[in-house]
Write a structure and sequence with these properties.
- The chain is mainly alpha-helical and about 80 residues long.
- It has one domain.
- About 55% of the residues lie in helices and about 5% in strands.
- It has a two-stranded antiparallel sheet.
- Strand 1 and strand 2 form a beta hairpin.
- InterPro entries: ScdA-like_N_sf.
């Protein structure tokens, strides 16, 4: 589950997450690549209000959970012939 303490660098390894950040107006990058701190710190630096931070984290967590569920479902399908 994604929370304020989650590492942005680790979150960015999940497919589709970069698009989510950009579509929501949050750049997850610093001059050296992915932001090297926590998600909470990134949102604070981007001056996102506390209420919007919670909403962003909730939506991001739901997106990641959906992606994990899809990968699990696809992984359990029989091989194509």
């Amino acid at each position: 589950m994604i929370n304020r303490d989650s590492s942005v660098e680790e979150i960015m390894e999940i497919p589709g997450v970069m698009t989510f950040f950009i579509e929501n107006g949050i750049s997850p990058f610093s001059c050296a690549g992915s932001f090297p701190g926590s998600l909470g710190k990134l949102l604070e630096l981007k001056r996102v209000s506390p209420e919007k931070q919670e909403a962003f984290i909730k939506m991001l967590s739901e997106l990641v959970q959906q992606k994990l569920n899809i990968e699990t479902s696809v992984g359990s399908l029989p091989p194509l012939k």
